[in-house]
Structure formats: structure tokens, C-alpha cells
Amino acid sequence: MHFKSITIKDIAKALGLSISTVSKALRNSYEISEETKKMVGDYAHSHNYRPNPLAQGLRKGTSKTIGVVVAVFDDNFFSKVIDGIESSSNEHGYSVIFTQSRESYDKEKQNVQTLADRSLDGLLISLSSGTKDLSYLKELSNIGLPIVLFDRISEEINTHKVVCNNYKGGYEATEHLIKNGCKNIAHITSNITLSYSKEREDGYLNALKYYSFPIEESNIIYCNQEDDIYDQANNAIDKLLNKKNPPDAIFCGSDVLSTTVFRILKKKNIRIPEEIAIVGFSNSASAEAYDPSFTTVEQPTFEMGQKATELLIQLMEAKRKPLKYDTIVLDPVLHVRKSSQKLEIV
């Protein structure tokens, strides 16, 4: 059954009033008598009238709508970021339209264009793993569309950005494995083109250097998030296990890889942490319920969504461009659990 909501024009026709009178009555204007306001209000309520924020916005030169592009909805990280975006946007009276790129540049570009065609006030975007050409975003930014990047960013766009301190997360995860007796630490991570992948890898490498560990290029394996993650992670683990000197620990560099690698190790009957210790970048609420409980680097996802939305609203409501743009860096938290503890911690 198709539901068609009534409009101000419908109310005016039904009550024999002008559209202007109905509009003013619904806005409680002093120009309209209380009797007419009540008549209009009662009819609107009984016929489930709802104001159209887009139409109202167009009259005011604003749609009160924010567009959002994330990689995927069914991901612990992005689902919590979305919660933060919704919380902040609702607080400020904005509606939100969410879309997912599915890690495809073409899909991302198509989604952004579709959103832009809906007269958005602004755009929040976390770039897909396949995005290399940002000219389409630059064009929209140059013609005045406020844009804020979060998590997966690019320095090519001069705007506000909100990210996690990925270097710190990578360093602390690796340092933790070292201090727990691990001697040969591998790193399975996402596309190096993603901004956070390089930062987390740098943290991993510098922790190894600081503690005078040898760096083996064969211990670092990249998984393309545009393709099947399970197959790639499975192949990565097979490569590591077939090495002459296989690793005794793995640091996983993304949310989806972390949980996937954990599952694969269990499926291969690899004892965790006795044979291979593991630390992941993951915001899974069930990490503590894993067997063994999963040591993870947790990102401040909800706060990231809130901060990005607040910065975007500032841009949208400002009368002129800011003199400078900010990059907000939020610290992650390492939650130590049994999956990484080869030695007893005193």
C-alpha cells in the first residue's frame, strides 16, 4: 500500500482556505485567529500532516539535511560512528541521509553526486579503499559544498578532518606484544592507500625499531578490502605459517581483518595465544566474549561521529569560510585481554 502524506495545499483545498492562511496557521502566526488555527491544526493532526523539512529548507536556502558516505553499514566501526553522527545532527535539528560505498570508488562517487543533487547543506565522508581520484570532491568543495572527512582522509581536500591516532594505536599494540614475550610479530593490514593503514604500519615498524627487533618485509601482508576479505586473510595466514620462521604474534590493522583473522586461526586449530598471540584494531562489543578474550585497540568511534558532525555544522552555518581548518586527532585505547598474553603480567 502506497502512503501519500498530505500537503499544505491539500489542507487549504479541504478547508476552503488560502495556502498562505494555512501556512501561517501552522506556524502559529499572530495574523491568524485562534479559531482558524484550531481548525487547521485539528485537520492537520487527524490527517497525519508532517512538515516537509526539504521544502521548508528550500524556502530558507537550506535543506537542514546532511549527507553521509561510509564504506559499509555492517561494520562495528562505522555503525558506532553513525550513532555519533545521528546524535549530534539530531541535537542540532538536522536530518541525515546515509549511503555506503562498499569500498568502491565508482559507488562512492555516484552516492556523493546523488546526495549533492538533493540540495544538501553538507557532506560527511570516509573514503573508500578504492578511491584515488578526488577531483569530484574538489569540484563540489570549490563550488561551496561544506565537506568534512573522517577516519579515511586525504590531504588533497582542504577542510576539517577527524581521525584516530592510528600511529599510537599501532605502536602500543606492537609494544604490548613485545613486552609479553613475542619474538616474531607479523602485521596483516588493509590497502596501503588508506590513510590509517600507513599510520598504523608506521607505529608497528617504529615499535620494532625501538626495541631492536629485526624488520621482515615478508611479515607485512596487505589485504585489498575491495575483494573477499576472508579469502585474503586466509591466504595471508597460510603464507605466514609456511615461512621457515613463522610468527608467534599477529597485529591486525583493521576492524574487519581483526575479527576475520581471529576466526581463521581458531578454524585452523592454532592455539591463541600459546602458538600465536593476536592484537586487533576492533570496536566489536563482543571482543571480551571471544575464546580467548580478544585484545583490541578500540577507537573513539562515537566521539569521532559527533566531532565530525559538529565541525560540519560549523561550516554550514558560518557566514564565511574559516581562516584555517582543523584536524582533530582522537586517542585510541588498548584493551588487554587473554589473546595476547603469552607471559603472566605482574
UniProtKB/TrEMBL annotation:
<dbReference type="GO" id="GO:0000976">
    <property type="term" value="F:transcription cis-regulatory region binding"/>
</dbReference>
<keyword id="KW-0805">Transcription regulation</keyword>
<protein>
    <submittedName>
        <fullName>LacI family transcriptional regulator</fullName>
    </submittedName>
</protein>
<dbReference type="InterPro" id="IPR028082">
    <property type="entry name" value="Peripla_BP_I"/>
</dbReference>
<keyword id="KW-0804">Transcription</keyword>
<dbReference type="GO" id="GO:0003700">
    <property type="term" value="F:DNA-binding transcription factor activity"/>
</dbReference>
<keyword id="KW-0238">DNA-binding</keyword>
<dbReference type="InterPro" id="IPR010982">
    <property type="entry name" value="Lambda_DNA-bd_dom_sf"/>
</dbReference>
<feature type="domain" description="HTH lacI-type">
    <location>
        <begin position="6"/>
        <end position="60"/>
    </location>
</feature>
<dbReference type="InterPro" id="IPR001761">
    <property type="entry name" value="Peripla_BP/Lac1_sug-bd_dom"/>
</dbReference>
<dbReference type="Pfam" id="PF00532">
    <property type="entry name" value="Peripla_BP_1"/>
</dbReference>
<dbReference type="InterPro" id="IPR000843">
    <property type="entry name" value="HTH_LacI"/>
</dbReference>
<dbReference type="Pfam" id="PF00356">
    <property type="entry name" value="LacI"/>
</dbReference>
